[in-house]
Amino acid sequence: MFQFQITSGNNRARTGVFTTPHGDLLTPVFAPVGTQATVKTLTPEHLKGINATLVLSNTYHLYLRPGDELVRDMGGLHKFMQWPRPMLTDSGGYQVFSLAQTRKIDDDGVTFKSHIDGSTHRFTPEKSVSIQENLGADIIMAFDECSDPNDHRYSKVAMERTHRWAERCLKAKTRPDQALFGIIQGGVDPDLRAASAEFIASLDTPGIAIGGLSVGETKAEMYAMLDVMQPFYPENKPRYLMGVGTPEDLINGVLRGIDIFDCVLPTRLARHHSAFASNGRLNLMNASFARDESPIDETCDCYTCRTFTRAYLRHLIVAKELLAGTLVSIHNLRALIRLMESIRGYVADGSFESRVPVLLQQWHGNAERVGKHKVAQDE
Ligand SMILES: [Zn+2]
């Protein structure tokens, strides 16, 4: 049911087709984040209009509200939110470690208090799989523990626990129509990362996820870890770099053999009036746009850019109209999805590697990174 076919390669970068029960994913792919079973401010029709294929939703949030059993009884996540294309859920691990008010970790699982009402809950690997089976996404994640990347001792403990938990998740899984990915951890320690990549690859899951990056380490450290892990990935399985990232990170990730990305950045920026553009990010609140008749980006094919001026968008923002968030989200997501479409074309014609310096230069002014911790809380 889950087949991954590599269709072209350009050194470590590659294009592929990942077959899921809700359709084929052309990789490399960028997935918009729909934390609470909605990509904020957008309808499924908007998402189809920008050619989104994969949407991510968060296990921790949906378990707390409205509850995974309710989602199951409503026909599962696809039907509940009316998204007919492929979906992915995370394991809930990252949110428990970043959002929950208090948490107590032991070898069996994590007890935590809800950030919504302070009520007490417990996640184990088996519980995470059971919740994700109720939600019903196509791609699900093994329960993992994300450590502070700079704490070597804790990174080792968290990595070893993540490995044991991945084995338990695989045993607990019952649905054949879901692909469970194991998650590599190991902080920013090259030896731990290599050991974790080797172990997770040995589990023979249909895909490999890379967790614990873009959580406070430098970009150089993140790219170094991607280089360290690369020899251990199975060639014929998709690789998912969780929670990444900026346009610059997408380009650098594909260059290092990554196939799947997700990030809240485009929609989060949109709600703060910030738009991706070819000459650097625009703050649409800026007074200089008050009478600007041009679109956000002349080169963009999205509905917002084909229809509205910067002057109109600025007016909506100043007047605090909700439509502003929708229109800028459409543009920001389309910008990253279009970047991935062009990258797939460049990999296929063999020109990707030689184009990387120009692509990075072009996206340089959009490169600012948002700490993942902060992003998760904002969601
Ligand atoms: Zn646009």
Task: Please explain how this structure is put together.
- The chain is of the alpha/beta class and 379 residues long.
- Helix content is 42%, strand content 16%.
- It is built from 16 helices and 16 strands.
- A 6-stranded parallel beta sheet has the order 4-14-13-12-11-10. It has a 3-stranded antiparallel beta sheet with strand order 1-2-3.
- β12, α9 and β13 form a beta-alpha-beta unit.
- α6 packs across α7, α7 packs parallel to α8 and α11 runs antiparallel to α14.
- The longest helix has 26 residues.
- It is globular, with a radius of gyration of 20 Å.
- The C terminus is likely disordered.
- Bound molecules: zinc ion.
Summarize the structure.
With 379 residues, the protein is α/β, with parallel strands linked by helices. It is built from 16 helices and 16 strands.
Q: Which residue ranges are poorly predicted, with pLDDT under 50 across at least 5 consecutive positions?
A: 369-379
* Mean model confidence by pLDDT: 94
**Helix/strand structural class:** alpha/beta
Task: Write down how many β-strands occur, each being a DSSP E stretch of 2 or more residues.
Answer: 16
| Terminal-residue CA separation | 33 Å
Portion in beta strands: 15-25%
- Categorize the overall geometry: globular
**Biggest sheet strand line-up:** 4-14-13-12-11-10
> What ions, cofactors and ligands are bound?
zinc ion
Radius of gyration (CA) equals 20 Å
Structure characteristics:
single chain, 16 helices, alpha/beta, 6-stranded parallel beta sheet, disordered C terminus, 3-stranded antiparallel beta sheet, 16 strands, binds zinc ion, globular, 379 residues
